[in-house]
Design a protein that fits this description.
The chain is an all-alpha fold and 63 residues long. Helices cover 78% and strands 0% of the residues. The protein starts with 10 loop residues before the first helix and ends with a helix.
């Protein structure tokens, strides 16, 4: 199973890691600094890529 940037492919762990990424992005964005907004955007983008990658991998595994 191909997964994003070496992150785990265990379904339960994938959901936990994505949740942690989203929570981290929210905390970082709450700081209110312009650099923090950019970092939060990068964290959200990584979470989105990871979710898409995991979804594709799980679909591939079903077939």
């Amino acid at each position: 199973m191909k997964i994003l940037k070496g992150l785990t492919d265990e379904p339960e762990t994938v959901f936990q890691q994505i949740a942690v990424m989203i929570e981290s992005g929210m905390i970082i964005s709450a700081i209110g600094d312009e650099e923090c907004y950019d970092l939060a955007d990068a964290v959200f983008a990584l979470a989105q890529q990871y979710a898409r990658s995991a979804c594709d991998a799980f679909k591939e595994q079903r077939t």
